[in-house]
Amino acid sequence: MKKEFTPRITSFLCKWCTYTGADLAGTARLQYPTSIIPIQVMCSSRVDPVFLIKAFLSGSDGVLIGGCHPGDCHYETGNYHARRRFAIVKSVFESLGLESQRLKLSWISASEGPKFARVANEYTEEIMELGENPTRKNIFL
Amino acid sequence: MSSIVIDTSASRKVKELLRFLLDSGKIDAAVTMRKIPENNSYDLTLITDAPDLDEAVPVIPVMTVNAGQVLSSISTSGKKIAAVLKPCELRAFVELVKREQGSFENLLTISYTCGGVFPLELVKEGQIEELLPKYDKTISKGEVPINTRDTCRACEHFIPMNADITVSVSGECESGKGCVMYLNTEKAEEFTEGFGGERSEQKFDPSLFQKTLDARLAEKGKLFASITKDGPGLDGLLDLFGKCVGCHGCNSVCPICYCLLCDFESANFDYNLPYFEEYLSRRGALRLPPDTIFFHMGRLTHMSFSCVGCGMCSDVCPVGIPVAAVFKKTGEKTAALFDYVPGRDVEESIPVMVYKEEELSDIG
Amino acid sequence: MTDSELKGAVLPALKKPGGAVRDFLRLAMEKELADAVILPMKVPSGDSFAWILMNDISLLDDAVPIAATMPVQGAKALRSLTRKGPGNLKIIAVMRPCEIRAAMELSKLGQVHPENLILATYDCPGAVQLQKYVDDPAGSEEYFAGMLQKGKPDDSAKPVCHTCENFSMFDSDIHFGYLGLSEKEVLVIPGSEKGSALLEGLGLDLTKDLQAWEKGIDQLKADKLNSRKSTFEETKAQLNGFNGLLSVFANCIGCHNCQSACPICYCRLCYFDSETAEQDPDALITAAEKRGGISLPVDRIMFHTGRMAHMSLSCVSCGQCSDACPVSIPVADVFSYVADQTQRTFEYTAGRNDGDPLPLRQFRKAELPGVHELVKDADAEVPSHE
Ligand code: SF4
Ligand code: SF4
Ligand code: SF4
Ligand code: SF4
């Protein structure tokens, strides 16, 4: 039995798409969990890979990047770069045997309020399943 | 493209070539390893006068500094330079040129089939001389010398990827064919015009190195397994890097890490007291200085796909962390996502500078 | 430093010095006279130590107050914590005397803010060389136990420890002394108002006179001064002339590990790594042409002599630079010797907390009378190439 806990999911959400989508979910009174800690960024490509690493090592149970669907980037190509960078961080995690499920990238447009709520719920559940991030208690990092 | 048959040791022949190039004014300077006469050790040297070549030892299993890193500060001088490089040094230089940290324009690159280099701790007071006979014998049999750098033993890119001139120093010599200097480019043909020696049309035959390749791949499997098959995990990572003293020596000798001021030494990661207080309140304790694992994971993310596995980082680590093995393993896995091989082709962009619209469909 | 009026308290816990220190810290935290402490702790792999800032008392049991080796110079830990200001937490840090001295230098340089720190030292027997420790932790612990017992370094210790004259109390807030005492005694001695206030708050009885301890220190100091003298003579002979310097640093690969391990070298970007110091490619070729050839990377001797000029006045002879050198150059032996010379010139002792500013932060109109003559004498030998 996994101990019940409230996960913390640091979420970098693109201003033009996902953040607006999250807003929409809110105004439509769609339920999504408080585990999501939103941080607005101008573009998913603003998320330096080291943000993900820092959030992970600081004890975030999950780290979510939300951006516009490929092809829809407000800056045209930002999310393609974001995708590559995300793939690199994920590969570093996998290669080191760290739980790469704690990192997630999701494309959610401004009109996809329901999708945001669904992703937030599903990801929170997945993280609950995984349990608390072991970095939370480590003092040698 | 033709080749030149070598009638003496490979190192001597390359030295003759450098002498010829300097004497004939085809180059202004040569970059090569040299024996330090005063203390029987070796260093990398920039030589402009042919007589100073006397101490040069172009082919020697010693790497005091990754020559690719040093070349980046010389190659743009506008002078013609010939550089003798180990394959991973050449690959590192290719990676640097991609990052606008050097130029091939006035450079003639000479590289050779590399048997691996000895760790720095063995590079003093004549120890190399004692090790050489056994080393030569081992590599000529297509086997892997036991006391070379761990990432050298595990290196499958010991055949230079894009040198102007490739010298075969192992394998072939043993199979009775004599060592050969292969001229791979127009540039090589041009520069060697007038240089003596028997010419032939012989082509470089990688299959002669199959045994070496197999042995290296087996070693690589072992090395990567030592970092554990599925990766070390958080605890394993701490076992590996927990004793890091944060000197960042690994970063400063890495040819790929060319930043004057590393991000992880910048003010971006200075913290004020409330940060530490917050940590204390959550964990009851924390390490000082902070960010030990963060630095390594950050560096892995920033550059491991360009890691050429030269092993400099492990060699300078004061606490013996197998930095290079971790970086090579992670780097290969990451580079494979983009079908990228560091140092393969100077025209190939580094993975973070480009993208494809249709790729990585499992993400997002 | 000690004066005859000063008295100390015998610690209630009669264990090895490290145990007594731990009990002392526990008491200080329990009585809320300290919010947190900084101590070494074994890293998970067990073959080295890391500095841990802790406010969780239960972790004290895992700490090793007097560690056998010195992987990260303590002043660097203090700097990472307080470089932006002193903060509100009252923190006791237990470190070697050379670490506290380096912290004092850094505080003069505005890099450590010690206002809310209580800096504690102990009679330091020396530190095992880092690589030795990592290679053989168990054996090293045995060596260190022996060193602790005798109070002085053996062959496993860093070479600079043998010549260290400031191995005991040196301007710290409190000091744990055990030299010259019976094996079951550890003294705690206040060294500042802050220190006195802490001991008073703990209700410790400052009645024990310090004679026995001072005698123990003085004896050892005499030995150390002798070995300092002879070692410096040797280093001086070795460094004789430019070629001497060259031969010591002949195998240097220019990694600058010595600089980055040094507690005093706090610059984010070392001048010698900066663009200003970088030679342009043409100048490099010209330099090579003048000599026929030059060793790469260039400017290694420039780096070392430049670093001596920049920081030797603050060098505390901690030996971290030697421990960090991948090609085993005795960097600290050279720096320690040079520091002795430069500090002597200004009658300055690095790490002294007596309000004396750094020598390069002040000048007097009439001083250094010999300097001009020195310059005149120095033109004897001009080396022809590097
Ligand atoms: S060289 Fe070793 S100790 Fe220094 S930062 Fe790199 S891994 Fe850490
Ligand atoms: S990470 Fe290490 S092995 Fe890889 S290129 Fe840099 S120094 Fe060489
Ligand atoms: S640590 Fe050693 S090799 Fe590196 S720069 Fe200093 S003296 Fe040279
Ligand atoms: S130069 Fe060496 S001995 Fe002196 S303070 Fe720096 S690390 Fe310590």
Write structural notes for this entry.
The complex is a heterotrimer of chains A (141), B (364) and C (386). Chain A has one domain (8-136): Rossmann fold, CATH 3.40.50. In chain A, 39% of the residues lie in helices and 16% in strands. Chain A has 4 helices and 4 strands, in the order βαβαβαβα. Chain A has a 4-stranded parallel β-sheet, sandwiched between helices. In chain A, helix 1 crosses helix 4 (113-130) and helix 2 packs across helix 3. The model of chain A has no long low-confidence stretch (mean pLDDT 94). Chain B has 364 residues and is α/β, with parallel strands linked by helices. Chain B has 2 domains: 3-220; 230-363, no CATH class. Chain B is 36% helix and 12% strand. An 8-stranded mixed β-sheet of chain B has the order 3-2-4-5-6-7-1-8. The mean pLDDT of chain B is 93. Chain C has an 8-stranded mixed β-sheet with strand order 3-2-4-5-6-7-1-8, with helices on both faces. In chain C, helix 2 (74-82) packs parallel to helix 3 (97-108). At the A-B interface, helix 2, helix 3 and strand 4 of A face helix 8, strand 9, helix 11 and helix 13 of B. Strand 9 of chain B pairs antiparallel with strand 3 (49-54) of chain C, so a sheet runs across the interface. One iron/sulfur cluster binds at residues 244-250, 316-319, 321, 323 of chain B.
Largest interface summary? B-C, 73 and 73 residues
Biggest sheet of chain C: strands side by side, in what order? 3-2-4-5-6-7-1-8
Biggest sheet record of chain A = 4 strands, parallel
Tally of structural domains of chain C: 2
Name the shape of chain A in a single word: globular
Which structural class best describes the helix and strand composition of chain A? Answer: alpha/beta
- CA radius of gyration of chain A: 15 Å
Helix content of chain C: 40-55%
Structure summarized in a few sentences:
The complex is a heterotrimer of chains A (141), B (364) and C (386). Chain A is of the alpha/beta class and 141 residues long. Chain A is 39% helix and 16% strand.
